[in-house]
Amino acid sequence: FCRWRFTFYLYIFTYGVRFLKKTPWLWNTRQCWNGYPYQPLMPDLHYYYIVELSFYWSLMFSQFIDIKRKDFGIMFTHHILAVTLLSFSYVTNLIRVGTLMLCLHDASDIVLEAAKMANYCKCQKLSDLLFVTFAIVFIVSRLGIYPLWILNTTLFELYEALGNFPALWVFNVLLVILQILNCFWSYLIIKVAYKAVSKGKVTKDDRSDIESSSDEEETVPRSKTLHSTITTNGTSGANGTNGYLTGGTCSEEH
């Protein structure tokens, strides 16, 4: 799962950057609303959106066959929110700003999956370094760039350009809920990152202990050496793409 998600995030983030750098709305977010709602659906944009939407649908369903963790409820809420955001923005043609959100949220997930793979390869120092890097990228992108760039244009520039209409309120409510989830996950990440820096290793995140009654899992001996197992959770961004360090297997989705 880790290698698959790392490959996907790396591919889709690279695709998003290559696509967006040719668009005017990357450099000027007011272009997201220029000509709305009669904006053409370019093939590259359509492909980007459909692939991301398909991925988040897969995460939502695969959660039921993966190992259940304490954060199952909030993870499921995140997946429903991501699918709803993508679907709603696609139907209402708010896809230009949607592409910005997806690319922004995918950035940190690449580092997270790399950290998990390093952990499973028992490269603990590399895993810890990657996790701290992930924490920095996550907090900067989702607590800094996301509200100042994405929420600014949807809450203010969109209203200035087009006035008031029902889809605006629905879209912004969904985006604000996503930001609340980002704040919650950032708090958890900061706790783990602080332990990583202060103690020299990433410790287990109690939030995601395995909740399973299977005899097989109960009888698996725990290593005396602290090794972190990092889980995911996510957005896109639409970010998506957020969960993090656990003592279980790599089965949690973005």
Automatic annotation (TrEMBL):
GO cellular component: membrane
Alphabetized Pfam families for the sequence: TRAM_LAG1_CLN8
Location(s) in or outside the cell: Membrane
Domain TLC: residue ranges: 1-198
GO molecular function per UniProt: sphingosine N-acyltransferase activity
Pathway: Sphingolipid metabolism; Lipid metabolism; sphingolipid metabolism
Name of this protein: CERS6 synthase
Gene: Cers6
